[in-house]
């Protein structure tokens, strides 16, 4: 029995060495996995390295895992001494086989704090472990700890070097280098989260970590938030049943709306939105700059030059784009509850944002939604922008006991003017209101062939009437 144990120890030590040699030969390994092999058939190493993929034959795991596990526990109990290099090798092998072993991650924290490990090397190990165990909670927790160390390194303490020659230039160059490094780490972390989410459906741990990264490393960065929202369109289009992906889009949408709504207005209000005898006030074209400042373009003004065009849309345009995405996905992939839940959440956010901004916005314009008695889904999808001194549609009704509408109010009972319709189509997009949502549900029910699609559409219409239509 003693000879057998000695043979196992020799075998396991050789396997641990082979794993570490594989990383030395190819530092670009991007995936690990187990190769089904019940027993050793050849007199060769069970570690297989093909291109950038590392495989471990399954027969050796029953010997390898208990060995490295017990060896690390004996070290923690101070029954066996291991140097730093041996600890790095042991924890690497153990975490590739069992990444939820908290003690191993704690040992690597100590190695990182004493300088035996770099944060990039630890993030790389966690990335490899997630290719085999994409939902490992301990791995995500450790990554957050390492990322905090990276952020701390990228925020050096302020030092007074202005008196030195060239001190300001060195400070600027150092800040630029640290900012680029932090941006690379952020980009790599987004990719790790996306890969883990694609490997395991509804991977709550991966999506929660992705939200944490944005909140901790890109808080208030409009460009990062908008780029994430744009890049996620393809992912959710390929995972239409994954609620976690749509929940992430909801987080991005709320974060963008919050930042854009708090941004100051950089230009004065247009002429048509100031109090005047004319009750008509054309809708201003709101657009957002990268830094969050809103600019208002008056109707009839020349289009901006390519250099002046904003790279971020305004809040109504964000909601319009999201509702268009929901419409396309619901029509292309009928019968998926996640799509209808996402549409419900987006319309709920838009409804409350519009209600909150119906009051005076500080620029002399009030955004109002027309109150329709005869709802035509194809009409009145664009909110009116009314000046404070003008008479709104609601105020013009029931004057002296008679229903009276403003001259410029849109006719909803008759056929709309085709020229007016063309002007509306050329105008800026605007998210739908309650009548257009009812029209969308009706169109879905008319051509519905899926019983699940019809059930979700009826539930959505009931929600509209009970929550929004009150």
UniProtKB/TrEMBL annotation:
Keywords: Prenyltransferase, Repeat, Transferase. Residues 263-282, 290-312, 393-418 are annotated as: Disordered. Belongs to the protein prenyltransferase subunit alpha family. It comes from Umbra pygmaea (Eastern mudminnow). This is Protein prenyltransferase alpha subunit repeat-containing protein 1. It comes from the Eukaryota. Residues 271-281 have a biased composition (Basic and acidic residues). One of its GO terms (molecular function) is prenyltransferase activity.
């Amino acid at each position: 029995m003693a000879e057998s144990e000695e043979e196992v120890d020799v075998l396991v030590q050789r396997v641990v060495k082979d794993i570490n040699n594989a990383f030395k030969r190819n530092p670009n390994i991007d995936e690990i996995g187990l190769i089904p092999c019940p027993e050793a058939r050849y007199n060769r190493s069970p570690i297989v390295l093909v291109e950038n993929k590392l495989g471990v034959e399954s027969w050796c795991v029953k010997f390898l895992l208990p060995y490295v596990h017990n060896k690390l526990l004996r070290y923690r109990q101070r029954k066996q001494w291991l140097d730093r290099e041996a600890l790095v090798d042991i924890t690497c092998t153990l975490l590739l086989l069992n990444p939820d072993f908290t003690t191993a991650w704690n040992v690597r924290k100590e190695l990182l704090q004493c300088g035996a490990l770099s944060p990039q090397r630890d993030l790389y190990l966690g990335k490899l472990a997630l290719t085999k165990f994409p939902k490992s909670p301990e791995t995500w927790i450790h990554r957050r700890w390492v990322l905090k160390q990276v952020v701390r390194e990228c925020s050096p303490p302020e030092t007074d070097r202005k008196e030195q020659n060239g001190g300001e230039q060195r400070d600027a160059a150092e800040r630029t280098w640290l900012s680029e490094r932090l941006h690379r780490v952020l980009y790599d972390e987004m990719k790790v989260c996306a890969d883990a989410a694609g490997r395991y459906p509804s991977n709550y741990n991966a999506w929660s970590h992705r939200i944490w990264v944005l909140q901790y490393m890109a808080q208030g960065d409009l460009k990062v938030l908008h780029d994430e929202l744009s890049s996620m369109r393809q992912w959710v289009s390929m995972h239409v049943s994954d609620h976690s992906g749509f929940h992430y889009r909801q987080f991005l949408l709320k974060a963008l709306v919050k930042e854009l709504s708090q941004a100051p207005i950089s230009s004065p209000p247009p002429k048509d939105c100031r109090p005047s005898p004319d009750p008509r006030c054309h809708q201003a074209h709101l657009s957002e700059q990268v830094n969050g400042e809103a600019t208002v373009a008056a109707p009839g003004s020349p289009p901006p030059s390519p250099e002046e065009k904003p790279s971020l849309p305004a809040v109504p345009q964000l909601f319009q784009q999201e509702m268009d995405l929901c419409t396309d996905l619901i029509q292309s992939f009928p019968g998926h509850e996640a799509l209808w839940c996402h549409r419900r959440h987006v319309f709920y956010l838009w409804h409350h944002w519009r209600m909150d901004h119906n009051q005076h916005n500080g620029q002399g314009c009030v955004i109002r939604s027309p109150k329709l008695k005869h709802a035509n889904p194809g009409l009145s999808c664009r909110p009116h922008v009314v000046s404070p001194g003008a008479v709104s549609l609601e105020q013009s009704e029931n004057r002296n006991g008679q229903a009276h509408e403003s001259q410029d109010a849109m006719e909803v009972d008759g056929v709309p003017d085709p020229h007016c319709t063309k002007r509306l189509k050329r105008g800026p997009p605007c998210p739908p209101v309650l009548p257009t949502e009812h029209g969308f549900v009706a169109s879905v029910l008319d051509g519905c062939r899926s019983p699940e699609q019809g059930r979700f559409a009826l539930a959505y219409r009931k929600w509209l009437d009970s929550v929004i239509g009150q």
